[in-house]
């Protein structure tokens, strides 16, 4: 799974960077802008952004401001704080995923198209529900891991 994520993210970033490079060369050096290039780059850019967030969730490497950790002393307290954080993340994330699912259904029903190239915007809109769904899966996996850490820390504390 990690290899697939790395290949996909690398491909998307190369595509976006290559498209921007072409845009800069044609627009500013050749003074011939490519019609629709910016519009077509929105799709891989959006997927790159969402899948980057999914990757951070998979790696459990989101930026956190864990100020409460300053006051904690034992591994059990750290695990409990992590459990509370994951439960809150899961609750909020599931609500957002439900909202994104409603938006995806709306997008499918309306079937809007981009203004210049007439690319269906559904292909970009579906990224949100896909990304949030995957992030919630990884959050649940991390929650289970923190619950196991808490149980292990409790066993060690009791002897």
How do the strands and helices of this protein lay out in sequence?
Blueprint (H helix, E strand, L loop, with lengths): L1 H28 L7 H23 L15 H36 L11 H37 L1
Helix pairs in contact: 1-2, 2-4, 3-4
Describe this structure in words.
This protein is an all-alpha fold. The protein has one domain (about 1-159). Helix content is about 80%, strand content about 0%. The protein contains 4 helices and no strands. It has helices at about 1-30, 35-60, 75-110, 120-159. Helix 1 (about 1-30) packs antiparallel against helix 2, helix 2 (about 35-60) packs parallel to helix 4 (about 120-159) and helix 3 (about 75-110) packs antiparallel against helix 4 (about 120-159). The two termini are about 40 Å apart. The mean pLDDT is about 95.
Write a short abstract of this structure.
The protein is an all-alpha fold.
Shape: elongated
- Total domain modules: 1
**What's the total number of strands?**
0
From the alpha-carbon coordinates, what is the Rg to the nearest angstrom? 21 Å
Order of helices and strands: HHHH
Relative strand content = under 5%
| Structural class assignment | mainly alpha
Q: State the end-to-end distance.
A: 38 Å
Mean pLDDT: 93
- Major sheet attributes: none
Unreliable stretches (pLDDT < 50, length at least 5) are: none
Can you give the helix content as a percent range? over 70%
Contiguous helical run count: 4
């Amino acid at each position: 799974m990690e290899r697939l994520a790395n290949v996909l993210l690398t491909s998307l970033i190369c595509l976006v960077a290559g498209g921007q490079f072409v845009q800069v060369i044609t627009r500013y050096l050749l003074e011939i802008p490519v019609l629709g290039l910016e519009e077509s780059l929105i799709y891989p850019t959006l997927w790159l952004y969402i899948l980057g967030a999914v990757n951070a969730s998979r790696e459990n490497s989101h930026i956190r401001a864990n100020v409460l950790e300053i006051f904690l002393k034992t591994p059990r307290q750290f695990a409990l704080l992590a459990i509370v954080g994951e439960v809150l993340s899961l609750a909020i994330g599931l609500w957002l995923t439900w909202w994104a699912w409603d938006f995806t259904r709306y997008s499918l029903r309306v079937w809007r198209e981009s203004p210049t190239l007439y690319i269906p915007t559904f292909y970009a809109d579906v990224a949100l529900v896909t990304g949030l769904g995957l992030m919630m899966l990884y959050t649940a996996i991390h929650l289970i891991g923190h619950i196991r850490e808490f149980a292990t820390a409790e066993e060690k504390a009791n002897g």
